[in-house]
Write a structure and sequence with these properties.
By secondary structure, the chain is of the alpha+beta class. The chain is built from 2 helices and 13 strands; from the N terminus they run ββββββαββββββαβ. The chain folds into 2 domains: 73 residues, Outer Surface Protein A, domain 3, CATH 3.90.930.12; 86 residues, Alpha-Beta Complex (Outer Surface Protein A, domain 3), CATH 3.90.930. 19% of the residues lie in helices and 35% in strands. The strands form 4 sheets. A 4-stranded antiparallel sheet has the order 11-12-7-13, covered by helices on one side. A hairpin with a 2-residue loop joins strand 5 and strand 6.
């Protein structure tokens, strides 16, 4: 039995789940509505404020899908109840980040500013404290979308190994290289 798949998903207060006959699961909560099309072989049932995911056989494919869909459904429930957040740090002299009219404007040492328009369902905020690096916060209810947007922003100027300049996740450790040494 799948260790992940057999665990029940507890539904917090304010979260409702609807499972259609075609295995289309819709989760509604205070942070929004998310849906997922579950494989027809996997059974999703709801009882006593819990969501259960069951598989028909012990085939390798069914075992893999069992844990996968249980984890995806857990992410949906967490997303509509609490939401997801990813923080990024902008490190570098003259590097700036600010949000104007919902568009993230970045100055990353290029000859031009970079404008990033977040997709629907994702909000971006910035925080700049004097003497500290600017922080960009990506928030939303869809875990995959929040992670993808954060990765795209980081990809605009990934941290380089010599001076450590660039955009990195909060708490990310960047391995530094020594660089050139003077010839004697």
């Amino acid at each position: 039995m799948s260790r992940v798949g057999k665990l029940p998903i507890t539904l917090p207060k304010g979260v409702t789940v609807e499972v259609s006959k075609s295995n289309h699961v819709t989760v509604k909560g205070p942070k929004g509505t998310l849906d997922l099309q579950v494989d027809p072989d996997i059974a999703v049932t709801q009882n006593d404020g819990q969501l259960l995911v069951e598989r028909p056989t012990d085939q390798k494919r069914h075992r893999a899908l069992h844990g996968l869909y249980r984890a995806l459904l857990q992410n949906l429930v967490m997303g509509v109840s609490e939401g997801y957040k990813r923080e990024l740090e902008v490190i570098g002299v003259g590097y700036r980040a600010e949000v104007n009219n919902g568009v993230l404007e970045l100055a990353l040492g290029f000859s031009h500013p970079i404008f990033f328009l977040p997709p629907a369902g994702v909000s971006i905020t910035t925080q700049t404290v004097r003497g500290q690096n600017p922080r960009v916060t990506v928030e939303g209810s869809d875990k995959q979308l929040v992670g993808q947007v954060a990765a795209k922003i980081r990809g605009l100027r990934p941290p380089e190994p010599y001076k450590g300049k660039g955009i990195r996740y909060a708490g990310e450790h960047v391995r530094r290289k020594a660089g050139k040494t003077a010839a004697r």
